[in-house]
Amino acid sequence: RLYQIPFGMPTCQEESEARTLYLVGDFSAPAEFFVTLGVFSFLYSMAALVLYLRFHSLYSENTKLPFGDFCITVCFAFFWLVAAAAWGKGLSDVKAATRPAALLGAMAVCQAEGVLCSAGTTPAMGLANISVV
C-alpha cells in the first residue's frame, strides 16, 4: 500500500514548506496471498503430522486418506509456486515504484532548468529478494 507512504518534496523557494507527495501503487495483494498460503500450509502440516503420529493405524488402513493427503499436498505445492511467482512480481513492481530515478522524475522541482537533484542512497532490497527465493 504505497499510496499511504508520504515523502516531502522541497520547493526550492525560500521560507516555503516542503510539499507532501505520496507514492503510487498498491502491491499488497501478492504479499498477502503469499503469507496466507504460508499460514495455511503450516496449519495443514501440523494437522497432517498429528494424523501421521496419533492416528497411524487409521492412516494405514484407509486407502482414500493417503490419496486425499497426496492431492492436498499437490494443490499446496502448485499454489505455493503461484504465490511465489506473484510475490516476485509484486516485489518487482515495488522496486520499480520506489526507484529513486522514478521518484525524482515525479518531482516538478527537479524538472526545472539549472536544478540538479540527487537521490542519495539506493534502498537495500536484499532481504526482500531473499523472501522471494
TrEMBL record:
Q: Which cellular component, as a GO term, is one annotated location?
A: synaptic vesicle membrane
> What membrane topology is annotated for this entry?
Multi-pass membrane protein
The protein's UniProt keywords, in alphabetical order, are: Glycoprotein, Membrane, Transmembrane, Transmembrane helix
All copies of domain MARVEL, residue ranges: 1-133
Q: What is the top-level taxon of the source organism?
A: Eukaryota
Q: What is its main location?
A: membrane
Can you tell me which family this protein belongs to?
Belongs to the synaptophysin/synaptobrevin family.
Name assigned to this protein = SYPL2 protein
Classification from the root reads: Eukaryota, Metazoa, Chordata, Craniata, Vertebrata
